[in-house]
Each structure stands twice: as structure tokens, then as C-alpha cells.
């Protein structure tokens, strides 16, 4: 990278409503991350949105006065060729598929969620082959590029890339940075004075240490979990006696596992009232694109922060800056395990604190692993491994095994029935499962 | 052992209805296992049964003409002193406690089972401290003795002994020998021409290879699972597509995990009809003891084979013979993991094929581990580790963690409510949970 | 194997003077190991010896009256096609190369030995490519065959096959069976009443337990090491205080490492007197072949037992019988580590007790590992890994690393000079090191 | 630490000639490391030197105007009580013992060196018990203190503390920082623009990556090793072909292993010329103390930099600053392995890059491990483990095993003779080896 004049960045899924945040990040941090070319790329059916958000990006850059070129394209290969960083933020099947992921399981009395459970599995089956295609382009056209993957289920996608490609890839989630921000707000200190240790997988982590200016605040945080949640997860309350004996703060996604009954009830209530998280998001997005279309708008609109994926772009820009400058700072990332959790294979993806060196992230050894968490981590990882291999092969037997072994799925019988319905509903996006041979 | 004239054997829980089988085994195999003294020991409240079954034992020995002394006693220390083998087959709280283990969970919509789930956990909490007391006696009075543990949950009891005592201990179950017998019958060959490889934990194993005279019959056995069951597990049918893609034969206990909904329905149906497995067993036992009381009876009555625990004594006598003679034959036992399942700690108990040497069993490396099984094994082991430590310490927080992390328990909320009711119902047998300090 | 009428066996290097022992074994154990075809195969330059020893083999079989066909051939592929077992006993470069392996290092003040040190390394460089060629034939023509490898350095050859072929291979040495025989003679018991536990690598093992009829005799054996040696290793005496604190009996090959100075002195003395082990062996062989040529000879001549490689054939026939019948007995073999020595990679070859099942040997976990031995095992394994990769690639850099890191080589400077001379002396047998590119 | 007004620091062996460097460091970095009390402690026989160097320290502080109290004492417990940091820099037996460590092995044709080989072993036997006594005081009087250990052999001392005490301890060496300085000078960049990865043990490491401003300069450094040496290691030249195929830069201490013959020759030449490194150091020290005695001296004299232990104090102050402030920067330290080198036990000390957090150093995973180095690392670690246990127990058998298994010791026979002479020569400092029972 050193010899070029500035960096080339390709954003796959560049028509996303999140893009203005990313652009704002590039503008703010231009000094440490000199972007020369920003390529926003999307598929044909996303061209309309790409143009709207891309033109906003151009107006933002113009206002900044910085020498960043913004390119809009549907030619993925052109965008990737020679890139220094590729980021992905895609949604195969769009919000309609998400709606099905969330609603079909409910019919079977099972949690319907976009990144875990049967819904997350379907998202993985649809998404992993597409991402591996992107990786083939990167291997060919930008073999030294870093792939920053925000596409969910980010942990599984990252593991698929580790196993089935040679691309240097890192998975990213906004949950860890969100926890840091929350503690920073609570204790009125700068975020860099908060150090939290994360153990587990993407959307399945436990926080075992929260140091604020060097003092351990875990017990205080366990006693006050009200603020630690996310837009897309209902707000059931943790049992204090449970948290105290767990001695770790679970990710809010763990409510699906620890409070399955209440979470399911809430999902069914919402569903019966006709509320549909995918629909809500769809409407928010439509409103955002209406704003973005305003040719006088030259900044990221505030409303974007309500969108749910706060800090995603901050996480992305932070990571690119650290990789580019070799800052050796600590970030929480999804990377290959390589012995950090000694009960998982080296090529399993985990979510863990890493030192970000010029040569990539080095995961830090864990100082505490909650004994209670180990089995659940391994049970979910087993499902993930099976589902990844199912996605790559289109093997129905592997898909049955994955579904039947997900801890949220109550029996083999339900697993198979639900799988059949969900495969059928996703037929369009799962060619590997519906080739003549496999039927 | 070599210098003594014959062996001393102590049977803790000697008043059990199984004892005649054991005595029959000692008589049949006297040549390879020369028993000099057989000590049947029980607690005061079991004295009546001990006398009935003990006198039958004496009549059986007398008929055989062998120089075996049979001693009946409630003095455990006298029985253990200088023993070569100690075997345990006890039921702390007796069948009444089992009845509660099986029925209370049903109120919460949870599987009620004597060795797994909330019921198995209660059994572990009651039993482990008693077994560790037996171990203290063995450490003091018979430090070279082998402890053969049949007391359920046998895997957890064995692990507790590994972790908290120095006694040389082996856990035993009749399920593996049962599978061998079934294949032997199906293929009309001698049992020693069947070789099966077991992977997993006690009551949670998968069979990955069934060689009959050197030919792999796994696929055939997967296609015909009808015969592979047990008296105490209802006979739901396996889904053939699931078995085929699993590529391993699951223990019938795994139906509680793989067919939770059907198994629960069956349990609730039985319960609503007033059927109660503990009651059924109680009645069978009463009938057996009536038979045993017949002073003309000099043999093990055939009815004992209906009792459900078939092959237990065969397993015990086989193991003692192999240890005594150093036969280096292969048996399926519960022993310390020591790296066999590389994702579990060395001191976890596992159920695995072992070569039985004069110096104890050496576990054999596994040739296949079903990828689907790994997560569930680890999830149940995590529960077991937490429950063992709860049993030893009486720590309520550990008990909450154990219950909440059992894969059959649907949520933290239910876990805590159910635990509270079950602890209270077992108060008499759980002094460590009800000391003044811990309340 | 089950469907055929008897077994096909191919012996690569069938013109060896050892062959009559092997033939005697097949005759003695025909009932348990029904050999239908025995193919003795050798290279063109060995045809003369092949014919002599092959005709003796035919006479021996004829005398036995058994329906074994003996084939003599230089067509390796024909011999291997459809074989059930392939055994190898070859010497690339013959005794002349061995002479150079043993003498060149002495010029540099370094131990000259045929299986370890610089000499063993040269033997590995010459032999491994040839064995891997044999493996390619087996992969193609007899993919289900077991390869029993006696070719030294047997541990390194076995590891090369594990890493660079798919052939099912087992390495064999006569040292373990020799130790058993020695203890059996000393204590006047049958060999199967002796159980010894071996830890380490081929020609680099320690014995940590010697049970004679179940009683541990290690201390007695440590106090009386006189009998434990071999024809090809000079008889320096162990220091008793050292053995006692080591708490394990080292292989006699370990004298090269533990008594380097004395062993070197003895080698130099012999060398200066004109004594040359390779020459001695050559003369013994010539005498043997003279005997074999006697057309009246119909039995293995007694003189063969003086040859040095006693028990090799016994070891081979034992192993074939156990594999064929699935006897599950315990033998000491060279197999893939797979976690037995947890500090070595899974694909390292180790010498370890195994249960020999129908599906191959399963290594037994070690009950004791001498703490002192660990570093030396790893140092020699590191050399072996480097030398194997050098043999396969012909990479001079790897050869330098291997030589320089062998514990018997005193410095990098000597390593490189000695390597240069030895490579040159072996030029004819090392085409990979002398291609135009690599010069 | 947060609640106190400034830090208390205890320097065990405070009378060392290095102390002025440490004091200079505290003065320069007072802002980030506010030292309130500096306790220099020494034994009675070192009181004269302690007073000289302590009074210089007082004058240096006075000149700085900072509110640091300097205390001189022989009461170790008073110095340690309540300390935040304890550092040790001691030499049990003083330079006379070092002289014997270096000269006795030469009689046996073995390298005589103060930190490795027989000499280093003797130093370990003398030093470890004393350090463990210091640790007992820290456990009692300053349980939260960090122990920074500079006392050689620093790796073995650190491992002894890990195994036999509960003190939070870190071992430090000046070699890593020296390499950074050398690269920084060579490439004319600030030291923090150089990133080097170290693999191995104290005084036995390999450098596998040297990034200068993000560019890998390893190959250049391998080609130009002239500058990379130390005062106490003779300057034999590396073989370039060896370094190139090793693909790592070895520590200059590795010359004792890789160029044993040349290094030994050089040692014998010096010895025969009457040159004695211990004597040279002794004279340098006398000159330094003469300078220190000058009551007008208020600064660290330049001559100290010639002393050989350059950067020791810089390393110490850097580490204290990072621990105190939780800077999360990367330093090369001796810490518990905990899985970083997966072939060594978790409690082995290794020398590795660590992120220094407020809660202590977290070792970073290694990105490359030179395959050639693995065996030698393990061989030396095996010696270290045996020698540590010998030091703690005074067990002669363990000492024989340690000596005989050191890669620099040529045979068991020499090991025992040399050990006997060296134990006798160190009798005064090895009470555990000369109690009535052990004689």
C-alpha cells in the first residue's frame, strides 16, 4: 500500500442506507486514512438505491473539499481490482427474505430471528455462496486486499471465508463497540478509557471484564443491565441472581437462548398484532432514501442513527485506520480461533479482542472464560460448522443436521418440517439445494 | 492382590434386588475370579432387604459348593477394609425420590427423567456427597481397591470421584453391553465377534462403528433401530433421514434430546393416566423380594431379568475378571478423558472403549467423532461440571448455573423456579444446601 | 479380504537374507494367516540373490506341503497388484552406502551410525523417495493393502508415508519384541506374561514399565541392563545413578546420545583397527547366501539368527495375523502420533503400544512419560521432520537445517562441511539434490 | 494503586552498579510514573556498595527537584511492605561464583557461560531459592505488587516463581530492546517504528519478523548480522547459508548452541591467556563505584553504558509505566506460556511479545514459528524444568538429569563428574544439596 498515492476502497452493497455513515467516517479521518477512490458497487436490482445514496456520497465529499473520487457501479470486478480494502454489507433476498426468516419459525413455536436460529441459518445458506464468489474476485483481482465483512451472520460468513478462500478477512459487529460506548456514557469517561474483554462467538458473546480507567466495573454493570440492548432485540429483563452467579454480562442476543420462552412470547404477540421487524426496517429505509434524494443534502442525516446499526461505520473506519497505520490498538473482531478457545478448532471464527497490527489482527489470550458458557458456545459452533458446510455443498443431510442441532430448535421432527418449508420459501436464493441431482 | 488367598469384595448397596445376578456371576466365574469374601453392606433402613437378598446369596453359594464367605453388614468400614474391589449400587432417597425427580419437572413442561435433565441433576446432588464419603473410607481402609461404580448418574459420579478423591474408580453402564448383545442376536454371532465404537458420555453416547466379524454393519443397524431400546425409555421412532445424515447410532437416552417434544408428550400422557415409572419399579421390586424370601430358592429367579438393568452384573464381573487377570480385552467404560475427546478437559468423565490392563483401563483413541454430536456432548458436560461442583459445595449459584445450562431446560426463569421446588422437595438429602449459612 | 481364498503378500526387497525367517513364519502360522501367494520382488541388480533365497523359500514351502505359491519377480507392480499385505525391507545403495554412512562422520568427530545421526539422515534421503514410489504403486494397484515397513530409518520412512501418501502403513522394529524376549527369559515366563510400555520414537524410546505377570520389574531391570543390547550397538555400560534418577530404561540406541564420547571413541578405535560393521555384515550375508544355495536345504538355517535382526519376521507375521483376525492384542508399532505425545504434531510417527484391530492399530495412551526424555524426543523429531522434507524436495537448505539441528552434530560449521561430503558421496542415489536447477 | 499518592518501589539488590540508570529512568518519566518512595535494599555484605550507589541516587533525585524519597536498607521486609513494584537484580555468590561457573566447565571441554550450560545451571541452583524467599515476603507484605525480575537466568527464575509462588511476576531481559535499538539505528527511524517478533525462551530466542515502518526487513538483517551482539558473547560469525535457510535471526546467545566448537575454542583461548570475563566485569564495577563515590557527581556517569547490561533500566521503567497506566503497548517479556508455544506446558516461561495491560501482560500469538527451532527450544526447556525442580528440592537425581540433558553437555559421564565438582565449589550457596540427609 505504501507506494500508492492514497487507498482504493470497494464497498460491496454500496447502495445500503448505511453508506453515508461510512462516507462521513472517511471524510473525518482522511488524515490517517487517505482514501483516493471509493467504489460503491451494487447489483442491478439495487441500482436505484445505489444512485440515490451514491449521489449523496458525492455531495458529502464535494463539501469536504477532499480529493476522494466516488465511483458508482454494478461491475463488481472493476470495483475490486486493485482495492486495498473491500467491505461488504449485503442482504441476499433483501428485507422480504428477512421477513420470512423471522416469521416461518414462529409457526413451529420457534424463535424467528435474522441472525440466529432457523432464520439465521437460512440467511447463512443464502449469503455464504455469494460472499465466496466475492472472495474469488478478490483472490484474483486484489489478493493483498483486506476484506472487512459486516454481512450477517458475520461470524459464520467469516468462518466460511477462512475455510473456503485465501482472502484476508475480518468479521465485524457493532455490538462490542456499543458496549464500550454504553460504559463510556455511564461512567462519563472517554471510550478509550474503557477496556472490556469479550468471550465467545458473533452474537453469542459474554463480557467477563469491564475496566473503566483501570477499575473493574463488571459487578456494577451486572447490577444495571437496563441500558445494554439493541434496537432489534426485545427488552426482557435479566434475572439478577442468574447474572450474579454467571459472573459475566451476556450479549443481548443471548436472551434468545436464556429467556427463550419470554422472547418467543413477545415475538408471537408482535406477530399477532401484525408487527414485523422487517417491515419496520423497510419503512425506516424508505424514509431515509427519501431524505437522501434531497439534492440539497450534503451531510449524513441524523435520522440514520435511529436505524439500529449504530457504530458499524465507526467500527469499519477504525479498523481500516489501524490496519493501514499499524497502530497496535485493541479492537473486538471476528477472526480465526487459532487456539484462543482451546475447545474449538483453529479455523473456527470467534469474536475476541485483537491487537490490530499492520499485518492483521492478533487475537489476545482470554483471561477468564465463564465455565457456564463453554457448552453453549460449542453447541452453537457445531450448528454453525454444519450450516456453513451445508451452504457450500447444498447437502440436504448437512442442513438437517445443522437445523436439528441448533439449541433453539426443540426436536428433530420440527427441525425437518421447518427446514422443508424454509428451503422452499428460499428456493430462488438456494440454487445448490435445488439442482436436478439433489431433488 | 497376588499374595492373598482369593479376593475380598464389598458391595455398597448390597440389599439391592440386583445382587443375585452379581452372586451368580461370581459363582460362574470363580475360576478366573476367586472370591474369598463377599461383603454385602447397606444402611440401617435397608437392613430388611439386605437380609432377604443376603440369605438368598448364601443359599446360592452353598448350592455351588464354592469356598466363598458371604457377610451381611451395616458397618461399611468393616466391609471396605482391605477389599480388592468395591462396587456401589445405591439410590439415595430411594424410589420415592426418584418419583419426585420424574414428576416435578413435568409441571414446568420439562422432561422428568432419573439420570438426565432436572431429575438427574437432583439425583447427582443427593448421591455425589455420599459416594465421596465412601471414597474417603476406601482411601483410608483399602487404598489399592478398585471402585466399580454403577450408581447413577454414573458419569457424573465417576467425574466427581476423579476430581475430589484419590480412589481408583471406573464407572459402568449396561447400555454398551446391551448394544453388543443386540447385534450379537441380530447377526447370530458370539458377542466377542461384535466390535462397537462408542463416543460420548454416560447416557449420551453415539455408536460410530459396529463391526460384526470384521464387517461394518452400522448402516444396517441405522436402518433397523427397532430393537435398540431399554425398559426405562419410551419407544419413539427415529427419523431415518436424520439417522442417515448423522452417520451414527444414538443411545436411546438421546431421544430425550432429539425428540424432546414427543418424549415429553408421552411422559405427560403416562403421568396423567397415573402411570409412574418409579411406582412400576417399586412393585416389580416388591415382587422380587417376595420371591427372594422363599427359603427353598437357591438360584437367581428368571423374573429378575425383566427388571430393566440387564447385564449390569455381567458388566461388573467381566470388569473385575479383566482387571484381576490383566486380560487386555476391550470394554466400554466411564473413565477420565485424558485427551480422547480433545475438546473436553482431561479430568472429564467420558464413556469410551478401553483396554483393561492389570493396571486399569486405558481408553482407546476414537477413529470417528460425529461432527454433529460435539456441541451437545460439550453442552451436557458443561451442565455436569457445574452440577458436580454444586453437589460438592452446596452452592446455590452453581446449582442455578447447572440447571439453566442443561439443554433440556428451556429458560433461566423456569430453571430457577423448578430448582427451588426440587431443592425443597429433596431438603432431607441435601444438607449442604440447607445449612444456616447458605440460607 | 474376507471374500478371497487366502491372502496375497508382496515382499519388496524379497532377495534379503531375512526372507527365510519370514517364510518360516508364514508356514508356522498358516492356520491363522492363510497365505495363498507370496511375491518376492527385487530390483535387477538383486536378481541373483533373489533367485537363491527365493528357491530356498520354494523348497521350504514344498516341504511344508501347504498350498502357498511363491513368485519371484522384478516386476514390482505385478507383485503389488491386489496384494493384502506389502512388506518392505530394502537398502538403497546396499552395504557400500552403509559403509560410507558409518565412516564419513568419523572424520568430523561425529558418530557414524546407519539409522541415526548423519548416517541415518543419508539413509533417509536415499530411501524415502523410493518408498514413496512404492506407495504410489500401492495407491493405484492395492489401495486396501496394509504396508508393513521394516526399512530403516523405519520411523522417518513411516512418517514420510503418513505425510505424503494415502497408503495404510505401519512401521516395525525388532527392538521392542527383543526387550520382551529378554524379560521373558530373565523371569522364565511366557512372552505374553510380560507387558512393557514404550515411549518415544523408533530407535529412540524409553521403557517406563515392565510388568512380569502383573508385577512391576522396572527397578530390577534398571539394576541389570547387561543383557539389553543388540548386535549392531557397542556395549558401553549405563551409569546406575543416571538410570535410577531417569526412572526409565533407555533403548540401547540411546547410548549414542547419552554416552556420545565413549561410543565415538569405540567407533574410532574399531575404524582405526580396520573393523567396519558394514563389512562384517556383508561377510555374514555372503556366508548365508552360500548356505541358501545348497539345493538340499529345506529349512531356515540356524546361522540366520546370528544376523542381528532377530525377531523381525516374528514381528511381521504377528502383525499380519492380528490385522487379519482382528485379535485386539497389544504390539509396539510405529504409527501416527494423533495426540499420544501431546507435544508432537498428530502426523509425527512415534513408537508406541497399540491395540491391533481389524481396522488397524489404535495407539494406547501413555501412563508415564519420563520428564527428562521429552526434550530429546522433540529435538530428534525436529531433525526428522526437516530431513523428511529435504528427502521429498531435494532442498539443500532443508538438508542443512536437518543436519545442523541433529543433537549428535556439534555445530553448524561441521554440519555443512559433512553434509557436502556426504551428499557428494551419495550423488548416485540422490537425484533430487543434483538436478541442474538445484546445483 | 489508584488511591495512593505516588508509588512505592523496592529494588532488591539495590547496591548494584546498574542502579543509577534506574534512578535516571524514574526521574525522566516521573510524570507517567510518579514514584513516591524508592527503597534500595541489599544484604549486609553489600552495604558498602549500597551506601555509595544509594547516596549517588539521593544526589540525582535532589538535583531533579522531584518529591521522591530514597531509602537505603538491609531490611528486605520493610522495603517490600506495601510496595507497588519490586524489582530484583541480584547475584548470589557474587562475581567469584560467576568466575567458577565460567571456568570449571572448560576443564571438561564444555562451554562455560553464566546463564546457560553448566554455569547457568549452577546460577539457577544458587538463585532460585533466594528469589522464592523474596516471593514469600511479597505474598505476605505486598500481595498486589508486581515483581519485575532481572536476575539471571531470568527465564528459569520466572518459571520457578510461576510454579512455586503466587506473586505476579514478569521476567525481563535487555536483549529484545537491544535488537529494536539496533534496527532503529540501522534504518534511522524511531524505535517505536520497529516491530520485531520474538519466539523462544530467555537467552534462546529467534526473531522471525522485523518490520521497519511496516516493511519486513528480516532478510536484510539476516544478511548483515555484524551489529547484533553483546558485550558478554564473543563475536563468531554466522554462516549465511544457514541463516538464510533458518529464515529467522537467532539470538546471539544461540551461538553457544550453533557454533559450540568455535565458541569453546574462543573461551579456552581467553582462559589460557588468563582473560576472565568475571574479572573484567569486576574491574569495570570497581571503577564505576569509584566514580559513584564522588560527592559532586549528580548524574549517571557515561561509563555505565559500557557495562554490558545496556537498556535494562529502560526496559524496567517502560514496563512499570505501561502497567501503571494500562497503555496496552507491546513489549517482549518472560511470562507463562499459556498455549502460545503449543508444545510447551502452560506454566513454562517463554520470551514473547505481550500487550501490557493494566492487569498485566497478555502474550500475543506467534505468527511464525521456525520449524528448525522447535526441538532445541524443547530440549533446553526440559533441562530448565529439571534444574528448577532440582533447585527447589535439592534432589541430586534431578540435578543429574538436568545436567545430562542440557544440549551443551556431551555425555552422562561428563555430566556427573562436572556436576560433582560444581556442586562442591558452590557448597556454601546450596544448603539444600548438603543437608545431612542428602549427603
UniProtKB/TrEMBL annotation, chains A, B, C, D:
Family assignment from sequence similarity: Belongs to the glycosyl hydrolase 4 family.
Molecular function as annotated in GO: hydrolase activity, hydrolyzing O-glycosyl compounds; metal ion binding; oxidoreductase activity, acting on the CH-OH group of donors, NAD or NADP as acceptor
Native organism: Paenibacillus glacialis
UniProt binding sites for Mn(2+): 173, 203
Cofactor(s) listed in the protein's UniProt record: NAD(+)
Domain of life according to the entry: Bacteria
Residue(s) at site: Increases basicity of active site Tyr: 114
One Pfam family, short name: Glyco_hydro_4
Cofactor binding mode and count: Binds 1 NAD(+) per subunit.
Keyword NAD: yes
Stored PROSITE patterns: GLYCOSYL_HYDROL_F4 (PS01324)
Protein name (database record): 6-phospho-beta-glucosidase
Domain Glycosyl hydrolase family 4 C-terminal: 198-409
Binding site residues for substrate: 98, 152
GO annotation (BP), single: carbohydrate metabolic process
Amino acid at each position: 500500500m505504501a507506494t500508492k498515492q492514497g487507498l482504493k476502497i470497494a464497498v460491496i452493497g454500496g447502495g445500503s442506507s448505511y453508506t453515508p455513515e461510512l462516507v462521513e467516517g472517511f471524510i473525518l479521518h482522511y488524515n490517517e486514512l487517505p482514501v483516493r477512490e471509493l467504489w460503491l458497487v451494487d447489483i442491478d436490482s439495487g441500482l436505484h438505491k445505489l444512485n440515490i445514496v451514491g449521489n449523496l456520497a458525492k455531495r458529502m465529499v464535494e463539501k469536504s473539499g477532499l480529493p476522494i473520487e466516488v465511483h458508482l457501479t454494478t461491475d463488481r470486478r472493476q470495483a475490486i481490482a486493485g482495492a486495498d480494502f473491500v467491505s461488504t454489507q449485503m442482504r441476499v433476498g433483501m428485507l422480504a427474505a428477512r421477513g420470512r426468516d423471522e416469521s416461518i419459525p414462529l409457526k413451529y413455536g420457534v424463535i424467528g430471528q435474522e441472525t440466529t436460529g432457523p432464520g439465521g441459518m437460512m440467511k447463512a445458506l443464502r449469503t455464504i455462496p455469494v460472499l465466496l464468489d466475492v472472495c474469488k474476485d478478490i483472490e484474483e483481482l486484489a489478493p493483498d486486499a483486506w476484506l472487512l465483512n459486516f454481512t450477517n451472520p458475520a461470524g459464520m460468513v467469516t468462518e466460511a471465508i477462512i475455510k473456503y478462500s485465501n482472502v484476508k478477512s475480518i468479521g465485524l459487529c457493532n455490538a462490542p463497540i456499543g458496549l464500550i460506548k454504553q460504559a463510556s456514557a455511564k461512567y462519563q469517561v472517554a471510550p478509550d478509557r474503557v477496556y472490556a474483554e469479550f468471550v465467545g462467538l458473533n452474537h453469542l458473546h459474554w463480557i467477563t471484564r469491564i475496566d473503566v480507567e483501570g477499575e473493574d466495573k463488571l459487578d456494577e454493570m451486572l447490577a444495571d443491565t437496563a441500558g445494554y440492548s439493541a434496537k432489534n432485540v426485545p427488552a426482557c429483563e435479566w434475572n439478577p441472581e442468574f447474572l450474579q452467579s454467571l459472573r459475566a454480562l451476556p450479549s443481548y442476543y443471548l436472551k434468545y437462548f436464556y429467556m427463550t420462552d419470554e422472547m418467543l412470547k413477545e415475538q408471537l404477540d408482535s406477530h399477532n398484532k401484525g408487527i414485523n421487524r422487517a417491515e419496520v426496517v423497510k419503512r425506516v429505509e424508505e424514509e431515509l432514501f427519501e431524505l437522501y434524494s434531497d439534492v440539497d443534502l450534503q451531510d449524513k442525516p441524523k435520522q440514520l442513527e435511529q436505524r439500529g446499526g449504530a457504530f458499524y461505520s465507526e467500527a469499519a473506519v477504525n479498523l481500516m485506520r489501524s490496519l493501514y497505520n499499524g497502530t497496535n490498538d485493541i479492537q473486538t473482531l471476528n477472526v480465526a480461533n487459532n487456539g484462543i478457545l482451546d475447545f474449538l478448532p483453529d479455523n473456527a471464527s470467534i469474536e475476541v479482542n485483537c491487537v490490530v497490527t499492520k499485518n492483521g489482527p492478533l487475537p489476545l489470550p482470554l483471561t477468564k472464560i465463564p465455565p457456564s458458557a463453554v457448552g453453549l458456545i460449542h453447541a452453537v459452533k457445531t450448528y454453525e460448522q454444519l450450516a456453513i458446510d451445508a451452504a457450500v455443498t447444498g447437502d440436504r443431510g448437512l442442513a438437517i443436521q445443522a437445523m436439528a442441532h441448533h439449541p433453539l430448535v426443540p426436536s428433530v421432527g420440527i427441525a425437518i418440517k421447518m427446514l422443508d418449508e424454509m428451503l422452499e420459501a428460499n428456493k430462488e436464493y438456494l440454487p445448490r439445494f435445488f439442482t436436478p441431482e439433489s431433488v
